Amino acid sequence: MFKPEIQFEQLKVLYGWQKIGVTSGLVLACIFVYVLSAVIAPALLLAWFVSLCLVAALRLLDGRAYARDNTDESAQRWLLRFRLGVTATALIWGASAWLLFPENLIEYQVFLGFALAGLGISVAVSYAVDLYSAMVFFTLIIVPFMLRMFINLEEFAVMISISMVWFLSFVFVGMRRANVYIRDNMLLRLNANRRTQVLQNSEVRFRQMFERPLTPMLLIDPMAGQVVEANAAASRFYGYSMQQMRNQEMAEIELDCHSSSINDDLEHRIAVHRLSDGQRRSVELYISALNVDGRELQFAIIHDITDRMRMEAEVHQLAYYDPLTALANRTLFYTNLQFVFEQVKHQLDHACLMCIDLDQFNHINDTQGHDVGNKVIIEAAVRLRRCVGETASLGRLGGDEFVVLLSGLDEDTELAQQQAATLAEKIRATLALPYYLGSAIPLHTDSMMTQYCSASIGVTFIHASAGSVSDLLKCADVAMHQAKKAGRNTVRFFDQSMQISLDTHARLNVELRNALKHKQFVLHYQVQVDSQHRPIGAEALVRWQHPQRGMQSPDSFIPHAEQTGLIVSLGLWVLREACTQLQKWQQHALTRDLVLAVNVSAKQFHQTDFIEQVQKILADTRINTARLKLELTESAVLGNIEDTISKMEQLRGMGIHFSMDDFGTGYSSLQYLKRLPFDQVKIDRSFIRDLATDANDAAIVQAVIAMTQALNIEVIAEGVETAAQRDFLMAKGCHLFQGYLFSKPVPIEQFDKSLQETLQQRLFH
Ligand code: C2E
Ligand code: MG
Ligand code: MG
Question: For the chain, which end, N or C, has fewer CB atoms within 10 Å of the first or last residue's CB respectively?
Fold first, then answer.
């Protein structure tokens, strides 16, 4: 370690002293020559002196060259040259002990010895930094004189020689010790220099790292609770000058914080920091301990995470909360429900789940518009929250369907039931109160619209025996539907009979799916006739040929198929089957003009690809589309009236006709009928049934017929069972009929057969 640096330092000392050393050596040589000139031949003296001067000159030149080019890398070379110069000088001086030795002149010999020893010691001390130079110089100067004295064999000379041996070894030890001491010193100094350098570098690096970045950084004294140092980015972020930042109280900046340690050296902190203008920002701090001049400080890197936090909160809100009411959405509610469900398994407290559905909410939506509908939903959510308090979990599963999760009910089942019933009743009563919309001032009726909207509530207890949270929701849902069936604005608890219906539902679901796969559906056809009983067409009505239960009427499975969405594929099957039949009819002159009516459910009609599906069927069967009539109920056309109109127009563009089925049973209004491109209105069979006995029904039927006449729309009555009904209808201006009076819905073979018979009878008459 440090070898080149040590050599460099050695050379600095050696060459630094060389000029004085060489010059003093020459001065000594002059004295030397002067003293010895009395006893030594002048030529010899001169030769010796000249050679010494030459070497001295070379060494001085070498010294100058060194001063110009001295680097760590060339140190080895310079050391070699220096040692060469020293050796040469020492050899010349050493040679003097033989060449210039004054025989038998003891006082001159003493002078020679004294001069050489003095020179040797002074040079050896000066060159102690390089043990080689020191030893070689000293040895080459002293040893020849010592030998020369020894071979004199005079007692005095031998004694001098022997004492010089001792002297030599003593000086050697001294030189060695001085050398070690000097080198140790050098090493220490180099070490210290290097450490200082490293420290300076790291200080510079730290300064750069601290000052340059755009990230705010603080040096904090945690004991004093003050900022010690801040970088420019921090000063910009907090809005204080650098001066103000220093000694800023942390309590002034940091308002709220949560810390956690990442490891022993690093702390993570989420906090709210106040800026100079009072603004509050959410920040994330990474803090590490830092010892500065014996002070335990904290170095903090600060990230402004306000926007990130806001975005995260928004994402969280969007992901888990209903945007309209800010109640938990399906995902969050399921999680809460799952949690309570798990809890119930381990504790005695009861918990219950309520499914709340606003009664006839669609009516408000359809007649008053979505804005009013939304206001009702929002108000209902507020009332619900008021009823259940802040602790209960409340959610909106979509549309007008709310859910309440009530835990912590009494351990006693009866008491718990009472608690749940009381709350459910409170909710029912609260939701049934009038909704004053459109004004901020309650009961300020001038600017307010009053809506009435009750709710049906289904309640189920959360039992550990329930299979899953979906089962629980299904139970509450079934109870809610029971409440609807019981006349709405009612509370119903889930019970065993409901469980049976739930099971039936589940079974029906599986069976229906299989039925489609195994082609268990068939179409029956019910004839439609004109006033002369001439068949003008038929309605295709689906039947389910159940392998065990026999022929099933659509009322027993269509509502379920609608609920589960299976109606979409079933409806397509019906349409394809009906079109295939139409195509067959179109092959014969007798049946070519028959119009076939096909029922289309709301769900099916509102499928985004409904038009494409119809187009595909039409392309496959290549029928005369003028003979196809689609029957839509009011529920199918309401809701999204614009979509309905657009779809109907597109289908009419293909030649298809439309009939409004079950007219009069819903919220039928002229308003819709006027806007929608229907070709026909079908008076519902419920009005026809009681025509003879119910004056209201007769009046309604009469009004419907008058309305269709005014709008120039065809009208047909379904469910005509008696001649009296037919006559009444005819008298009022309805000349098209469908009903048992003419024929029940029958399989195609039977339909074709009776068609033939009717036509033949007509031919004979
Ligand atoms: P809808 O479209 O109003 O069909 C007329 C219903 O009245 C048929 O009942 C028919 O059998 C019955 N009907 C006809 N004449 C008389 C009569 O003189 N007296 C009595 N009491 N009833 C009569 P069905 O076949 O049981 O169908 C019931 C409902 O099922 C249909 O009402 C329709 O809404 C639905 N439906 C039937 N087939 C399909 C279908 O393929 N697709 C869709 N989406 N719904 C269908
Ligand atoms: Mg129909
Ligand atoms: Mg009908």
Answer: C
